[in-house]
Amino acid sequence: MIDVILKIALTLFSLTIAISFYRVAKGPSMPDRIVGLDTIGVNLLSMVAIISILFGTKAYLEVILILGILSFIGTIAFSKFLERGVIIERKSNR
Amino acid sequence: MTQVLLIFLPVVCALLIPLLFKKLPSIHTGWFVLLVPASLAVYYATFVTKLENHGPYTSTFHWVKSLDLSFTSYIDGLSLLFSLLITGIGALVVLYSIFYLDKNKEQLHNFYFYLLMFMTAMLGVVQSDHLISLYLFWELTSISSFLLIGYWYNRDKSRFGALKSMMITVFGGLMMLGGFLLVANMGDTYSIRDLVAQAPTLASSPYFVLALVLILLGAFTKSAQFPFYIWLPDAMEAPTPVSAYLHSATMVKAGIYLVARLTPIFAISEYWIWLVLGSGLITLFWGSFFALKQTDLKGILAFSTVSQLGLIMSMLGAAAISLHVDGGSSAIFKFAAFAAIFHLINHATFKGSLFMIAGIVDHETGTRDIRKLGGLMSLMPISFTVAAIGSLSMAGLPPFNGFLSKELFFTSMLALKEFTLFNFDTWGAIIPIIAWVASVFTFAYCLYFLYNTFIAKSDYKELPKKPHEAPFGMLISPIILASFVVIIFFIPNIIGKYFVKPAVLAIQPQLYRSASEIDITVKAFHGFKSTELWMTIAVVIVGFILFSTMKKWRKIYTLVPEKWSFNHLYDQLMLAADVGSKKLSNLYMTGAIRHYLMYMFACIVALVVTTLFLKDGFKFSFAHTAKIGIFEVAIVIVLIVGTLTVLLAKSRLTAIIALGAVGYSVALFFIIFNAPDLALTQLVIETVSVALFLLAFYHLPKRYRIEERMPFKINNFLIALGVGIMVTLLALSAQSQKLIPSISQYYKDTVFTEAGGGNIVNVILVDYRGFDTLFEITVLSIAGMAIIGMIKLRLSRKEKKSHENE
């Protein structure tokens, strides 16, 4: 029973990713794309969690954490890039 | 042992030359050098009488035993004769050069070093019994000749002549090496004596003719035979002692020596007879015909050398015939070998003296142009006498040695009419006619040389120097040689007994058991019934007419345009090689990486697919494949979509993001295929590399940041498709044919018991196969340092700035 539910959830997440990917590909402005990517990251993270339940292993928990961090860092970096034009700013007192 | 080491005496002494030149500048270095060939000549002269009773002397110095390489000095009649020529004429040439080259103006240490090096090389060539060491010395003669021709290296013509002779003789030398290796392979020995002993069995080898042709190429290029004679006239830019020594008496006879030495092996083949005889006759005619065209004294002598070498070569070809005649030792063909060797000695004497006279004329008048010279007879009587003796001997008149060898030459050429094998019955009649016509031309150019230099009237004021007789020291050597020319005419049979017959024995060992068996006596006068005498008389008459009417028919030389000459052909060949190879490499070396990648990928596809087809490598079986689930399908679709987006994206940013998507879906693959460590790493690395791509993208120069779709190119498309298909096919067929089981079971069993770990991937990385990890760490640190270096180190800009500040 739980297997079926998990698989339905996975399918739904995949659909979400597909829809978000459409936004990334199409997205008229750059922020649209970045938000789309962020959504994809979160959904990927959820998919990994469900897959690890399906496989009955704890080995993927690190992957979930890493994905969370990376998705966050990536979004921040992109946003800063859009805002300032650089990701790492030089120290002003140099 | 001393015998073989003495070959190296000149080159060892040469090491002292620069020291003597620098430390004892008051004495002409040539006086020290003179000791070397003189003492060697005395040493070799002692062999002359010993050889008759004792037989050949051998002496071996082992060089590389495991490869069967050795220096073997083998002295029989032939090599002794050549050794005596080399050292004897070498001594005379050194003596001449002492007076010819000014010790204050010339770089004598270079000159004598090269000359002694050449002497060693030449002695090595004629005495070597080992094919490889023979080749070694052979190339050393080419190199030292190159150095000597280019002695005045600041002249363009010298360098051109040196390069030309080097190219041609080294080409021949390499061909000859190939022939040597083939022969050594056939007979399973490098020793020439052993090869001669098994000569009949060698002839049955399929490579026999190939080896023969290759070796003859070497001999013909060295001995300036048609059509390889073209380097010799250009080699006349060398100092005259060099021309006299190398290009008349010794080096150009190395090819003659080789043909004579290998006659016992190859004479059995009709190709040998025809090639040697034919090329000799053509060279003889061609050289004598074109000698009359020359206006430079040394040019005339160069062409006459070519012609005389052809004469000797043709007689060696005729000598090979005696092998095919029953009772060759009593037949009329026996004269050819004798005549060849006899003329070889005679040619060395008169041509050496003529070159020295040409040098003296050049030295005392400042020019070698025959159109400016003339009337030197009364001013330089001694030189004139020597020149007259030399040229009349070359023309073949009594009482000089050239007469005797010319008579013998006619005898051996007339004898060819009686030979019927190998199509000689159809061509045999023409050969004496060609020989006779060539002799007529020879007579004419000898008169031309003598008359226009010494007798014809001329205005001295046009000469660069006021002509006068040369110093006595310079005249010694030509006088000695000229006296030989006369002496040999009166005592031909003594020369024959001690020098010619032992050499003939080496050329035709199957005919005679010992040198004393050869019953040839040279007579100056054969009686009025002999054809040879009437041929000589006709030569004199027709030659005289030809010379006196020279102005009328000389236009014939302008009939054939310069474009058709072999010199032009050589120039064009060099140019074509130069320009052609440049064009060829420009054709494919475009400098565009895109093209190189295309070559590489196309080659990989062609090679792999062809190999798989030829070896029947395509075998697909899907028996062991796992089931395909819905996730895999979904992720594969994402992968394909991502990849297509990368290819078709209009903006670069989209392509980068799509690449990131591809990377992440690969990470997803790792997850569903149970590889958590890989998935972790892949995620982090993908993120970092996407960030780096973005960095690189941001710094693109604005001018080039034109956003457009990648243009479609059919070639690229086909190659990409090919590579993709190839890799797919390769993976499928490799997967279908697993021959051995995986070793991973061992890791699974021992990961805890042996290594004390639970994570099998990590244990493999740091324990079972830690070396790979170590060097991957190294790779990463090198990459990191390289990036720092690339960013921080900006020498070129700094240098620019410092220059600007100045």
Question: What do these coordinates show?
Answer:
- The complex is a heterodimer of chains A (94) and B (806).
- Chain A is mostly helical and 94 residues long.
- Chain A has one domain (2-84).
- Helices cover 80% and strands 0% of the residues of chain A.
- Chain A contains 3 helices and no strands.
- In chain A, helix 1 (2-26) packs antiparallel against helix 2 and helix 2 (30-55) runs antiparallel to helix 3.
- Chain A is flat, with a radius of gyration of 17 Å.
- Chain A starts with a helix and ends in a 10-residue tail after the last helix.
- The model of chain A has no long low-confidence stretch (mean pLDDT 83).
- Chain B is an all-alpha fold and 806 residues long.
- Among the domains of chain B are: 1-206 and 225-257, no CATH class; 332-558, no CATH class.
- Chain B is built from 37 helices and 2 strands.
- Chain B has helices at 2-5, 9-14, 17-23, 30-45, 47-54, 77-100, 108-127, 131-149, 156-187, 192-197, 199-202, 208-222, 231-234, 240-249, 254-266, 270-291, 297-321, 335-365, 381-395, 401-415, 424-427, 430-455, 472-490, 492-507, 531-548, 550-553, 556-559, 566-588, 593-614, 630-648, 652-672, 676-698, 714-736, 744-750, 760-768, 770-792, 795-805; strands at residues 57-64, 69-75.
- A two-stranded antiparallel sheet of chain B has the order 1-2.
- In chain B, strand 1 and strand 2 form a beta hairpin.
- Chain B is elongated.
- The model of chain B has no long low-confidence stretch (mean pLDDT 86).
- Chain A binds chain B through residues 10, 14, 17, 21, 24-25, 33, 37, 40, 44, 47-48, 51, 55, 57, 59-60, 62-63, 66-67, 70, 73-74, 77, 81, 85, 87, and chain B through 631, 634, 638, 641, 645, 654, 657, 661, 664, 667-668, 671-672, 674, 676, 679-680, 683-684, 687, 690-691, 694-695, 698.
